[in-house]
Design goal:
Distance between the termini: 49 Å
Low-confidence stretches: none
Largest sheet: none
Mean pLDDT: 89
Helix content: over 70%
Number of strands: 0
């Protein structure tokens, strides 16, 4: 029962969408423009860096809260933090009140990693920046991170099951980026450099 409560609570936390809230406030169709997802990257593309930072902080923070709260409420349950983190990421990606159409999960995945192992999160952030900058595509940076973090957690803790639980989120995130990979191959994906220049921002 404790696992079910932790998962449900974390899913509900993850379902909170700052991109959706800001889009409504600014009258921006966040799901009809840009990449169409409800994450920090699309918020940046459509509404600028201020909106992107706010969304990222919100999405990271809710995942940290999910893990910390689950561990505090159920300290005797093994892997409850990992379970809560994955549930929060899935809540971000599939919010029930938005037709199960949310973001790609990266910021919440990073937030989960911060709560589980801050050193691993720092390494993941460096990897994300390096791969994204070198490739110009956040989707490739994301893929590198969601593969590296479960493996890294396993190696750091010596507990393979902690990594296996995180792989559930990783697999869903990679699947949700398939359209990005197709656009990259087709030359139509919005890259980091064009985002920095604000070429796709809604006026």
């Amino acid at each position: 029962m404790g696992y079910l409560i932790a998962a449900a609570m974390s899913y509900l936390l993850g379902s909170s969408s700052m991109t959706w809230y800001l889009g409504k406030l600014k009258n921006v169709d966040v799901r009809g423009k840009g990449t169409g997802n409800l994450g920090a990257s699309n918020a940046t593309v459509l509404m600028g860096w201020g909106a992107g930072v706010l969304v990222a902080v919100h999405d990271i923070g809710k995942a940290i809260l999910a893990v910390v709260l689950a561990r505090w409420l159920f300290p005797d349950l093994a892997y409850v933090g990992e379970l809560a983190g994955v549930a929060c990421v899935l809540g971000h990606m599939y919010p029930f009140y938005l037709g199960f159409r949310g973001g790609k999960g990266l910021a919440s995945f990073i937030g989960m990693t911060i709560a589980l192992n801050i050193g691993l999160a720092a390494a993941a952030a460096v990897l994300l920046v390096l791969v994204t900058v070198l490739s110009d595509f956040i989707a490739l940076g994301t893929t590198a991170v969601v593969i590296a973090v479960p493996v890294g957690l396993w190696l750091l803790t010596g507990d393979i099951w902690a990594g296996v639980i995180l792989l559930a989120a990783s697999a869903v995130m990679i699947a949700k980026h398939l359209d990005n990979f197709r656009r990259i191959l087709g030359g139509t994906e919005i890259g980091l450099r064009s985002t920095i220049k604000g070429e796709h921002r809604v006026k």
